[in-house]
Structure formats: structure tokens, C-alpha cells
Write a structure and sequence with these properties.
The complex is a heterodimer. By secondary structure, chain A is an alpha/beta fold. Chain A has a domain of about 90 residues. Chain A contains 12 helices and 12 strands. In chain A, the strands form 2 sheets. In chain A, strands 6-7-8-3-9-10-12-11 form an 8-stranded mixed beta sheet, sandwiched between helices. In chain A, helix 8 links the parallel strand 7 and strand 8. The longest helix of chain A has 18 residues. The relative contact order of chain A is 0.13. Chain B is of the alpha/beta class. Chain B has 12 helices and 12 strands. In chain B, helix 5 packs across helix 6. The chains are: A alpha/beta, B alpha/beta. At the A-B interface, helix 7, helix 8, helix 9, helix 10 and helix 11 of A face helix 8, helix 9 and helix 11 of B.
Chain lengths: ~350, ~325
């Protein structure tokens, strides 16, 4: 499949300097720091990072689902409108009708005491003018669309009657009920077995092609990213450290953290039969040192790295359009061939 | 028996385990029979000293039940487990205590398997003293030794489990198992809750420990990348049965069972975008309460024939040291 598109359609969703902060200690500290992203129509963007990197928070901030204690700054422009400034009525219309979310654990995201049919119906009732019979027809159509067999009968079933994979399909059906243009998927396959994960990934690809969905896919699995994402953004300690076409980022990474992630995957062992683990641990958001957040764990870090905060930008000498890295020494990485 | 005449460290033969399924009130009133879910159905395996045997399969395939049977957290309904040639099911008293000390389990979630109200030092020295491995006075020295072995700082002994990150807790879980100087470690999905970079640290730790201490390991996992990297031999399970077993690299590069092939094809690989809209395998796992007749994989198998629907394929060895439970595997006598 053609992953790097030649024409670049305008972005439907733009994040600019999105920052999420929490109160704590002497003031507030940022857990998502200045995230800027563009998502185009029909594009699947992978948002990759380890636990605590801020990827799920970024997703929730887009839909304004964060608890009140977390402050969000910056802007989330959806089709020319700033979601962060939207009033309650607009938000209600946006959520479900234009953008919707798929969660990691369908069993906790679905209501256990309502049948799947009722849960699809709820969303249709809130956002469409369809009558009861039309809503029922639409619900059957949706279960068919996501590949749940004998849809008519399954609508009356409760979530516990569904297997893990079927539950995730049901959740995708609910998310798609009102024809949203944007789907935010928060680790939708992490709790599933590989064969079922494969089925769900293929389903998402098919739905993207058939319905022209734009998808932000949050995951920690670089294999999954490689399978379905057109573009990828790598997050570390609340910041995007590298972004570009998936193939470029995974085959010629220009940030030491991305390289470290790829190297620490089994299958990329060094000559002595050991994995190249990244030493140490990610910094605590409250105890962040100045300079590059990755510097304490980085083998390439120089004196400047612990002073200057690197900015995400195109790398001098990189031939690939749209490839950006937040590393002071990115140009040196090109000289080394950018190989993981 | 191996060719050298030594019994293998652990030998499992025809192990079966069924769980009773609760009936609802209406089912009981209607006098429906009790139902049973078959978690293990005739599993046979062998573990040699110093080797790592991986058990892979999807959730519900019985891999964790097998691990729990091995440490006698479950008792098996049928079949036997032999440790150095001695039947574990017949062990009593001192002999059983000895077995339990030698075969140690590490659990998936270190936080729920550590006592939150005991410091790491207390947890470790309890295991040492209760089992009489060291007198109480020497325990602190041994604790320091163990912490060093798993690359934790010495002051970890005075801290509580909640003060550690996920990767560090898993190191504590490993130290707890090593405290008993086991000859075999059974690791049940110990990496699945960890991030990739931390996971790599733990994998390196396991490899170096195995080299230094000559440990044998049964490594239960659903992560095929890790299994390929870490194990010498691999057993692939499906619905309570072993469908294929052999040298890890050989199985991964030339899988013989259709289920193994489908499982490997479904695993996402970096730099390998399929870009097609069909999945490697259709359908889902059948219910363990109502296993399909014949080969349990036949409803999802693209190659299934009439024979597969009626007759159970036995796990048979081939000349290459591989065992496959499939009627269609090469080398089987045509019927």
C-alpha cells in the first residue's frame, strides 16, 4: 500500500502547543508539553510511547475528557473550530457525532447492564433524527459493518456474552454509529490476542478506506504501528520527540529514543546475545531536569543536551519530507546513517 | 529418558485438568448436568536441565493452568508430572517441600504477589529463613547478595513494594524466587505488564541469571518476539493441547502446524506492512466447555479435511526432533 502520499490534503485536526498540567508541590507541572500535530482526512496517525509518556492524555485532551484538576492550554482546531474554547452545547454535538473514541478495555467502557443494541441506540438517539425502526436498522447495519455475525440477534445480548474481540468490535460499532469523521483509538488492541488483534487492525484499515475516517491510534507496540499507521509520532515524557512517515521513522529514526526503542525489541539483539535495553527510567513529571528530557538516558548526550531544550523540527540534511526530530544531535545521527 | 540415561528435570505426561462451571439457578432447577471446561487435555512435555522451554498460545489455551499445575497450585485430574524421575503427585512431606523449593514461580503482576506490608528485605529473608537455607543471622547478607544479583540498590531492602516501579517490582519478584536457590523457574507472563525498554532490561537479567546459576526455565508468554529471542525450545498450545513442539528457531522459521503458521502470521512485525484487508485467521476460540470433535483447530483451519473433523491427531515426533499434532503434517502415514 502507498503510505507516503504525494499530495498533502489540508489537515482536518490540528493540535498546536497542547499542554496539560497538574497541580502539585509548589505550583503546576506539565504532563503533556507543547504537542503539535496535524491529522489529514483518511489518515491513520500512530501516537507511540511508553506508559506515562502522555499519549492517552493527549487523546483525551482532544475530546476534552480530562478531569477538571488538569488544565489544558494551547489549541485543538477541528475543522476550523477550537475545541478547547467550545461551549457545552457544541461539545455535546462534536462528541459522538463528529469525533468518537475507542477505549482499551471494552468491558469497562461498555455499560454491563445495557444490551449492545441499547448502547448503540443511545448514541443514535442523541445525535440523529432517525425514528425507532430506522435506528434499529442502523444498529444491525453497524454490527454487520464491524463483522459481528447474526447481528439481529446479537443486538439483544449484553456485553458479558461477547468475547474480548467481539466486545471490541461492538465498541467500534458504537463509536461509528453517527458517522464520525475522527476516531480516537486508545490502545484498542492491547488487551487482545494476536490473532484477534490482527482481525481488529484489518477492520480499522477497511473502515478507513470505506468511510474515509481519520484515526489517531495510540499504542506502545511498534509492530502494530508498522502495520497500520501512515504517519507516526513518538512521545517521551510528555513531548513529541520524532514524527514522520511511519516507514521513515522506523527505518531511519533520527532521535536516540526512537532508536533505543527499536533496539530494545527482541530480534534486534547485539552480537553478545543481549538486548540493547535503554538504561534507567523515564523522568517523573514533577522532577524534570532542564534540557532534553531523554538526556540522562541517552548515550549520545553532550554538555549542551542538559542545558538546551531541543525543539521538534526538520533535521538539516534529512531528505525525507515531513520528518522531524527533537534532538540537538540529530544531524550527527544522519551522518551515522540513521540506522537503529 | 534422554539418550544419556538421565531423567529430564521435569517430565509432564498426559496432563489433564478440568474446571467445573457454575450452573445458573434455572439450569440447576431444570436438572441440566454439570458442565466442565477442559483447560488441559493430555499435555506432555519435557524440560531438560539448563534449558528454556517457552509455552505460547492465546488466552484460554491453558498455558497458565499448566504453569500452575507444575507448581501444584492446581492438582491435575489425569496424567503425571515427574521431577528428576520422581512422580510429583506422590510426593509428601519433606520430598514435596523440597520440590516446591526447587521449582519456583514468578507471577505476571509482581505487585499483587508481594506482601505490601513487608519490606523487600523482610519478604526475602522470610523465604530464606522459613526454608532453613540460612540461619536468621546470615539472612541480611544473603538479601544483599540477592538484590545485587537482580541489579537493585542495597537500600531496596528497607523499602516497601509500592515505592518501586513496575520493572523494579518484577526484579523483586525474581529475587524472591531466587532466594530459594531453585533449579527451575516458571515464569508466567512476567513481561506483559512492562514497557518495551524495561522489558529488555528484564530479559537481559533472565539471560544472565540463567548463565550464572544454570537455571532451567519454563517461560509462559503470548509475546512471540520475546519467545523467539529467549527460549531454546517452544511448545505451542491451542485449547488445552500442545499442537507443535520443537527447537524455537526451527519452529519459527518453518512452522509445521497450521495454527502455528496462523499465529506467527498474525504477529505484527516492524517494517513489515501487509497492507491487505484479510486477517491471518478467521473465527474465534471455541468454548472450552464444548470442544469440537476431532482436531480442536479444525473449525478455524483452512486445510481441514474429513479426517480432521472426526479423529484427534496425536502429537507425534518427526525425524527432525519436531512434534506436531496434525493429520496433514508431512511425514504422517496417509490414511
Amino acid at each position: 500500500m502507498e503510505r507516503e502520499r504525494h499530495e498533502t490534503p489540508p489537515a482536518v485536526l490540528s493540535l498546536r502547543d497542547l499542554t496539560v498540567s497538574l497541580p502539585g508541590g509548589a505550583g503546576r507541572f506539565d504532563i503533556v508539553r507543547g504537542v503539535s500535530l496535524d491529522l489529514r482526512r483518511g489518515e491513520i496517525l500512530g501516537l507511540v510511547g511508553e506508559s506515562g509518556s502522555g499519549k492517552s492524555l493527549t487523546l483525551k485532551a482532544i475530546m476534552r475528557l480530562l478531569p477538571g484538576a488538569m488544565q489544558t492550554r494551547g489549541s485543538v482546531i477541528w475543522k476550523g473550530q477550537d475545541v478547547l474554547a467550545a461551549d457545552a452545547g457544541t461539545l455535546r454535538r462534536l462528541r459522538g457525532a463528529e469525533m468518537s473514541m475507542i477505549f482499551q478495555e471494552p468491558m469497562t467502557a461498555l455499560n454491563p447492564v445495557l444490551s449492545i443494541g441499547r448502547q448503540i441506540d443511545e448514541s443514535l438517539k442523541a445525535h440523529t433524527a432517525l425514528d425507532r425502526r430506522a435506528r434499529h436498522r442502523r444498529a444491525v447495519e453497524l454490527l454487520d459493518l464491524v463483522g459481528i455475525p447474526s447481528a439481529e440477534r446479537r443486538l439483544r445480548d449484553y456485553p458479558f456474552r461477547f468475547s474480548g474481540g467481539m466486545r471490541q468490535r461492538a465498541m467500534i460499532a458504537i463509536a461509528l454509529a453517527c458517522d464520525p469523521q475522527l476516531v480516537l483509538a486508545d490502545e484498542p488492541t492491547t488487551a487482545l490476542d494476536v490473532t484477534i488483534q490482527d482481525q481488529i487492525l484489518q477492520l480499522l484499515l477497511r473502515l478507513r478506506d470505506e468511510l474515509g475516517l481519520s484515526v489517531i491510534f495510540v499504542t506502545h507496540d511498534l509492530g502494530v504501528v508498522s502495520e497500520i499507521c501512515d504517519r507516526t509520532a513518538i512521545m517521551y515524557a510528555g513531548e513529541i520527540v520524532e514524527t514522520g512517515a511511519t516507514r521513515t521513522v522506523l527505518s531511519a529514526p533520527l532521535h536516540p529514543y526512537t532508536q533505543g526503542l527499536l533496539r530494545s525489541m527482541p530480534g534486534a539483539a547485539s552480537a553478545d546475545g543481549r538486548l540493547n535495553a535503554i538504561p534507567g527510567q523515564p523522568p517523573q513529571p514533577a522532577a524534570r531536569a532542564p534540557g532534553c528530557a531523554f538526556a540522562p538516558r541517552c548515550a549520545m548526550a553532550g554538555p549542551a543536551c542538559s542545558v538546551t531544550d531541543p525543539v521538534l523540527g526538520p533535521v538539516l540534511g534529512s531528505v525525507r519530507a515531513g520528518h522531524a526530530s527533537a534532538c540537538l544531535r540529530a544531524t550527527d545521527l544522519i551522518a551515522e546513517g540513521g540506522q537503529p | 529418558m534422554t539418550p544419556t540415561g538421565h531423567p529430564p528435570l521435569i517430565e509432564v505426561h498426559g496432563l489433564a485438568k478440568r474446571f467445573a462451571v457454575e450452573r445458573g439457578l434455572i439450569e440447576r432447577l431444570a436438572g441440566r448436568p454439570r458442565r466442565q471446561a477442559a483447560a488441559l487435555d493430555g499435555v506432555s512435555l519435557r524440560l531438560e536441565a539448563g534449558e528454556t522451554l517457552a509455552i505460547v498460545g492465546e488466552s484460554g489455551c491453558g498455558k497458565s493452568t499448566l504453569a500452575r499445575c507444575l507448581v501444584r497450585l492446581h492438582s491435575a485430574d489425569e496424567g503425571s508430572i515427574a521431577y528428576l524421575g520422581h512422580d510429583v503427585g506422590l510426593m509428601r512431606g519433606e520430598e514435596l517441600r523440597d520440590y516446591r523449593r526447587h521449582v519456583q514461580m514468578i507471577f505476571q503482576d509482581p505487585y499483587s504477589s508481594l506482601n505490601p506490608r513487608m519490606t523487600v528485605g523482610q519478604t526475602l529473608s522470610e523465604a530464606i529463613v522459613v526454608n532453613g537455607l540460612r540461619p536468621r543471622a546470615e539472612a541480611p547478607a544473603r538479601v544483599a547478595e540477592l538484590l545485587d544479583l537482580v541489579n537493585l540498590p542495597p537500600d531496596a531492602a528497607t523499602r516497601y513494594p509500592r515505592e518501586f516501579s513496575g520493572g523494579q517490582r518484577q526484579r523483586i519478584g525474581i529475587a524472591r524466587a531466587l532466594a530459594l536457590e531453585p533449579s527451575c523457574i516458571i515464569a508466567d507472563e512476567i513481561l506483559s505488564a512492562l514497557d518495551v525498554s524495561v522489558q529488555a532490561q528484564i530479559i537481559n537479567l533472565l539471560i544472565s541469571l540463567q548463565k550464572r546459576l544454570g537455571l532451567s526455565m519454563i517461560f509462559v508468554s503470548h509475546d512471540l518476539r520475546v519467545v523467539r529471542f529467549l527460549s531454546h525450545r517452544v511448545a505451542v498450545m491451542y485449547l488445552g493441547r500442545v499442537v507443535e513442539e520443537g527447537e524455537t528457531e526451527a519452529v519459527f522459521s518453518a512452522p509445521a502446524h497450521p495454527y502455528t503458521r496462523a499465529l506467527l502470521a498474525a504477529a505484527p512485525e516492524v517494517g513489515l506492512s501487509r497492507g491487505r484487508h484479510d486477517s491471518a485467521m478467521t473465527g474465534e476460540l471455541p468454548s472450552p466447555m464444548n470442544l469440537p470433535p476431532g482436531c480442536v483447530f479444525h473449525p478455524r483451519c483452512p486445510l481441514a479435511t474429513g479426517l480432521c473433523r472426526t479423529e484427534v491427531p496425536w502429537l507425534l515426533g518427526t525425524e527432525t526432533g519436531r512434534s506436531v499434532a496434525c493429520h496433514l503434517a508431512p511425514g504422517r502415514a496417509p490414511r
